[in-house]
Amino acid sequence: MNSKIKIETFEKNLEVISKAQAGDMLKFQRGLHSHWGIYTGNGEIIHRWDPNGDMSNAQVWKSKINDIMAYDGDLQIHNFLDDKKKPLPISVIVEKAENALGTKGYGLLDKNCEHFVTECRYGQATSRQ
């Protein structure tokens, strides 16, 4: 990827962050898969992952969005179930995410990063990946 495209992607992602509100689900599109986190404000997300890429050691972390954007990919605010399910109150979404910090475990079909964010936002885990 050339540096001009990376800069354009980074600038677009910064614009998305400026519009994000606490409790929003943020989707980082990375080729064929997506990574998800709950925006908690102050440029931070809470998400299920392993910074070393070893998902057998995945847990729930709080990270600066800029650190996650270093892995490239387009960023979107993607509260895709809002038209079907009522989101929990913002304070509850953020509290659920914060209470999960340090929780270990990962399962592609039942405990991935998308399951985590939908559980926090809607009270029911689901994934379309």
From TrEMBL:
Gene3D superfamilies: endopeptidase domain like (from Nostoc punctiforme). Keywords: Hydrolase, Lipid metabolism, Transferase. It comes from the Eukaryota. GO terms for cellular component: cytoplasm. The keyword Ribonucleoprotein does not apply. One of its GO terms (biological process) is N-acylphosphatidylethanolamine metabolic process. Belongs to the H-rev107 family. This is LRAT domain-containing protein. The lineage of its organism: Eukaryota, Metazoa, Spiralia, Gnathifera, Rotifera.
